[in-house]
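Lab notebook, entry 123. We have the chain sequence and a SMILES string for zinc ion, and the next step in the workflow is to get a structural model of the bound complex before anyone spends time on docking refinements. Request logged below.

Task: model protein plus zinc ion, output C-alpha cells.
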Amino acid sequence: MVFGRIQEVESSVGTKMQNRGGMVKDIHEQIKLDTHWAKRYYETQKKVLDDYEKDVNKERRIRRRDCKTCHYLRNGVAGQALTRFECRLCKASGTNPNTRVPKYCNKCSEKFDMCAKCGAEMD
Ligand SMILES: [Zn+2]
Ligand SMILES: [Zn+2]
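Result returned:
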C-alpha cells in the first residue's frame, strides 16, 4: 500500500525534496514544493499572456516576421540547428536557425503581411 510506504519514509525526517520524479520522502514537504512550482507555472503563463497583450517585443517580433501568437505563445522547444526549408508559396528555399521551420519566406510574409511561421495575419 502506497500510503504506508510514504509514512515509513517520512520518519527519516527533514530531507530536502530536490529529487524531482524520485520517491516521495515527505508528502507535506512535497505538496508545499509542488504548490510552489504550480504557482510559478501560473505566474510564468500569466507573464507570457501579459507580454502578448502588451506586445512587448513588437519591433523584434515584426523583424522576425512572427505574429503575436508565434512570438509569445509558440516559441517553445525548437532544436538549435540550421534547417533548410521551402516557402510554401513561392517555393524559394531558405535556412532557419532552428528546427521549427516557417511556412513562408520573409518576402512572402512581408508581401502579404502575414506571419512567416504560421501564416496568420500580422497584428
Ligand atoms: Zn516565399
Ligand atoms: Zn504565427
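Notes for the group: The pocket of zinc ion (ligand 2) is lined by residues 66-67, 69-70, 115, 117-118, 120 (CB under 6 Å). Worth checking against the assay data. Strands lie at 83-86, 93-96.
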